[in-house]
Amino acid sequence: MIKDSGMARYALWRLLGLIPTLLIMITVAFFLMRVAPGGPFDSEMLLPPDIEANLNARYHMDEPLLQQYFRYLSQVAVLDFGPSIQYKDWTVNELIGQGMPVSLTIGLAAMVLAFILGTFLGITAALRKNTRVDYSLMGVAMLGISIPNFVIAPVLILLLAVYAGWLPAGGWDWSVASMVLPVVTLSLPVTAYIARLTRGSMIEVMHSNFIRCARAKGLPESLVIRRHALRPALLPVISFLGPATAGMISGSVVIERVFSIPGLGSYFVQGALNRDYTLVMGVVIFYGVLIILLNFIVDMIYAWLDPKVRYDE
Predict the structure, then answer these.
(1) 98-267 sits in which CATH class?
(2) pLDDT digits (tens, 9 = 90+) for 52-69
(3) In sequence order, which residues have a C-beta less than 8 Å from that of residue 113 and are 6 or more positions away?
(4) What Cα–Cα distance (Å) separates residue 172 from each residue in 177, 263, 271?
């Protein structure tokens, strides 16, 4: 009961801490966008002064910078990110709503695949420590960490789409076939990280006193692993999952570009290149909230896995 009340208080304080964190993030992003060279209308043809003045007035860019800042904060408070400057007749909320499901689907599917495959490979390598299986799996994992996504993606396209013809080379239609290549490409480096983390943690746990005690009781090795070793061995992996999942969802820009996927990352890159202030700010806020919430969820899962964690202290 004490632990439950302590975790509830901790969860409440973490959620309240979201407000100042978001405020700092919005402030930094807002002023960085404004001090960056160029503007949203610089890529257009040379505009007459009266038309440029009307455009600035339309988007409140003729106001003092602090006034623009507080105006934007008042809009964000009611979850209104304003109109997009470059995407005509579109609001930032509509663009995020259109790209978010695609990016979330790819990122979460890639993380599930990476977690399942990475933990399996890590546990297998740990249980066969210093054997050919261990060296082979960790060698492949190191290779997966070293090769970036923008190298893996064209290779998979050539092998599985161009030569074999099994999968489409790009595009997005919400079919399983269109998801396979981007999800696999995005998951491979994280799979390698999780495999190495799981291996190291599993080896350490298997040499712990409580594991030796469980073996001394005559429990089967498979039961020792499942009931006693698996949960503490996954603690470092769980800590890694929060920022890794957010990084997958927000860092799928290269994947979306290579496979021509209309995700949120593509909008973010295009908005940054075009100085679409409202679009970039909206995506930054969305990703910031996502990262904070994922880290919060990871902390709660960590407490469930490790009974020694006491948030009430």
Answers:
(1) mainly alpha
(2) 677 667 777 777 888 888
(3) 183, 184, 187, 191
(4) 9, 10, 21
Angle 160-161-165 (CA atoms, 0-180°, nearest 5)?
A: 90
pLDDT for residue 268 is more than 70? yes
User: What span, in angstroms and rounded, lies between the C-alpha atoms of 196 and 182?
Assistant: 23
At 171, the pLDDT band (50, 70, 90 cuts) reads confident
For 129, other C-beta atoms within 10 Å of its C-beta total 13
Rg (CA), the chain: 24
Q: Which residue has the tokens 């689907």?
A: 105
Confidence (pTM): 0.76
Residue type, 110: A
Put residue 290 in one of left, alpha, beta given phi > 0 → left and psi -120 to 50 → alpha: alpha
* SS3 state of residue 283: helix
Strand partners of residue 83: 91
Q: How far apart are CA 53 and CA 117, in angstroms?
A: 56
Question: 246: which residues sit within 8 A by CB, 6+ positions away?
Answer: 287, 290, 291, 294, 295
DSSP characters for 194-230? HHHHHHHHHHHHHTSHHHHHHHHTT--HHHIIIIIIH
Nearest residue to 110 via CA among 261, 305, 276, 274: 261
Beta carbons of 103 and 263 less than 8 angstroms apart: yes
The pLDDT tens digits for 30-54 are 888 777 766 666 655 566 667 667 7
Domain boundaries, the chain: 98-267
Cβ-contact 144, 172 below 8 angstroms: no
* Both structure tokens of 265: 């990352």
**pLDDT over 60 at 18, yes or no:** yes
113/275 Cα distance (integer angstroms) = 35
Question: What is d(CA 145, CA 148) in angstroms, rounded to the nearest whole number?
Answer: 7
Q: Note whether 251 and 264 are within 8 A (CB).
A: no
Determine the Cα–Cα distance for residues 184 and 182; give it in Å rounded to an integer. Answer: 6
